[in-house]
Amino acid sequence: MISNHLADTSLGRAGNPRPARLRVLLALLFLFASAAISSLHAQIGYVQQQADGSLQLHRMNADGTNDLQIGLPFTTFAFPTFSRDGTQLAVTALDPALPIERSENVFSLNTTNGAVNELTFYGDLFDSVNGVIIYNFPFYKAFSPDNSKLAVFAYIQYANASDIGTQTTTPSLEVYTAGVASAPIQVHVDKGLNGTHHGGEGVDWSPTANLLAAPLEGTANFQSGGGPGEITAIHLIEPTAGAVLAGHSQQVTFPRADSQISGSAPFLWGEHDYQPKFSPNGVGLAYVRSFQNFFLLTKPTPEPYVESIRILNLVTGADTQVIQFAPGLYITSLDWSPDGNQLIFDLGVQSTVPLGPLHSAVPETNEVYIVNSADGSGLTKVRGPGASTPAWSRTALPPPLAPNLGNISTRLGVGSGDNVLIGGFIITGSGDKNVIVRALGPSLGAAGVTGAMPDPTLELHDSTGALIASNDNWKQTQKTDLEATGLQPTNDLESAIVRRLTPGSYTAIVRGKGAATGVGLVEAYDLDGLGKLANISTRGLVQTDDNVMIGGFIVLNTGVPTEVVVRAIGPSLGTAGVTGALADPTLELHDQNGGLVASNDNWMESQKKDLEATGLQPTNDLESAIVQDLNTGAYTAIVRGKNNSTGVGLIEVYNLQ
């Protein structure tokens, strides 16, 4: 009999009771209502594969209505997971700040204020002793009931330095503390994946006890005697360091195995449990059971899996099958409705290779289904094909917010006098905004940029021109505050300012210390998403080759295209009294993959009527402008002088929403 785990806050040896780098990257993606509501009106998040293979995150009502895209600033993401109270939606994605890394991290979208936070801090590592690169993929995750911690079952992948292909993959169960930039607690390292067991595939945190549920590789005696055979079982585990090895865990599902070597059709089979999910009241534990059969002599590869969904009652110990599917169909993700009366899951054709079936479904065959949890009745397809990894929230969403511009940056050669780098941005709305502004130089040289600024200084001015703050080397003034953001520069000679700003226009000025010159970068990061980072501009000396003006910005929205005007200004600066203005600027707009979105030389030649309709057309015919609807993502605007001319130029981005 399974003991009543709900009465304990933790597990001790032999089951005896025992006493009981949050980094904001982007903001204002979308907003949820916060009141608890029925399952019908709660929101379901899921991933939709597009015809070109790209992914979109969607949310919809339980009946399939009100389906809208959730804008994300990531090119890849997986396994959306809601917190118990519905205030957080976590996804696993590549870090936009680390584009050359293969490891992924968990990011959470705050459904109350729209902020995006990084919750894990994995990165590529090189093991020089063994000559391998270590990658991390934290696919499976669960929030603690109070959202203060995040449990992650990450896949640690070891690959040859000269080969991205996997050598071995090992699941590691870890717990991160929100707001603490420190190493996670390592709860358990499971057996390396071998293509058979499902260890590491899923994790959940009990809503009523300080316990995790996770699948671990194990063995079971054969039903006919002898053995043992390999199985995967669900365990309840304390979220403490080394809990499994210390005996602070308990197996609660008991999959079987058997084998027959003699006879004309010898076989070997085993059951493997994965994707555990606690019911809203913590009494039920839903999971997927995979039956794997291998005819040892008559077939060269294992049979397609037979998948079923089961529910374990943690009070009575009753383990009941809810529904079973035909061989060759695979379940990747599972979740409960807020009232506990239904289960949602995806189902697709199992992927196969010459060596046999894989632990995945063919992406384009995935579909999302709902079934009654009591008896498996009412099976209903709500999305497909290409829809996968559904998660059921406890809240509904209001209409999408107006799109927003997020983090901005401009790289340019920094001169002296009027040729310093001047960056401007506007905060709109009624709320103050926490912003960090950085001036980078030496780290650009480390990244391969020729002639980088050796020691930049930074000033921040308000709309009247008054100096708000200044910095030379970032560690000299706001070291603790900057480190708390996780966005402190990597070189001590670089400058940064973190400040809470009221709505208005602001200017950041980057100079070289001692009138030094070189290529510099000015950046502004939105830290909390409570205001709106709107129109942005940068003025500086536009040169040639690597020293052209490069402006970057991120569009944040909720699936609604953002209308943006980008301008490259030159001659009108001369009219305004700026010496050495760029005579004839050209403009290119690129997406985050480097693809050309649009280009322009003289603004009247292409989009004259559209630009005039905005009222933002340049005042000089030789200046350039682009008006464009942009989806969520990172964009780069490049300003050059026509025929390699040089001079002081201005790049501007206007959010028209």
Explain how this protein is built.
The protein has an 8-stranded antiparallel beta sheet. It has an 8-stranded antiparallel beta sheet with strand order 34-33-36-31-38-45-40-43. Strands 23, 24, 25, 26, 27 and 28 form a 6-stranded antiparallel beta sheet that branches. The N and C termini lie far apart (61 Å). β12 and β13 form a beta hairpin. The protein is elongated. The protein has 4 helices and 45 strands. With 657 residues, it is mainly beta.
Chart the SSEs and their pairings:
Layout: E1 23-26, E2 43-49, E3 55-61, E4 68-70, E5 77-82, E6 88-94, E7 104-110, E8 116-118, E9 125-127, E10 132-143, E11 149-160, E12 166-177, E13 185-189, E14 204-205, E15 212-220, E16 229-237, E17 249-251, E18 257-260, E19 267-278, E20 284-295, E21 306-313, E22 319-324, E23 329-330, E24 334-336, E25 342-353, E26 356-361, E27 367-372, E28 380-383, E29 387-392, E30 404-414, E31 421-428, E32 433-440, H1 442-446, E33 456-461, E34 467-471, H2 479-485, E35 495-501, E36 504-512, E37 518-526, E38 532-542, E39 549-556, E40 562-569, H3 571-575, E41 585-590, E42 596-600, H4 608-614, E43 624-630, E44 633-641, E45 647-655
Antiparallel strand pairs: 1-8, 2-3, 2-29, 3-4, 5-6, 6-7, 7-8, 9-10, 10-11, 11-12, 12-13, 14-15, 15-16, 16-17, 18-19, 19-20, 20-21, 21-22, 23-25, 24-25, 25-26, 25-27, 27-28, 30-37, 30-39, 31-36, 31-38, 32-35, 32-37, 33-34, 33-36, 38-45, 39-44, 40-43, 40-45, 41-42, 41-44
Work out the oligomeric state of the chains in this entry.
Answer: single chain
Which blocks of ≥5 consecutive residues have pLDDT under 50? 1-41, 397-403, 529-535
User: Helical residue percent?
Assistant: under 10%
The major pleated sheet works out as: 8 strands, antiparallel
Shape: elongated
Structural class: mainly beta
The averaged pLDDT comes out at: 81
- From the alpha-carbon coordinates, what is the Rg to the nearest angstrom? 28 Å
Strands of the largest sheet, in order across it?
Answer: 35-32-37-30-39-44-41-42
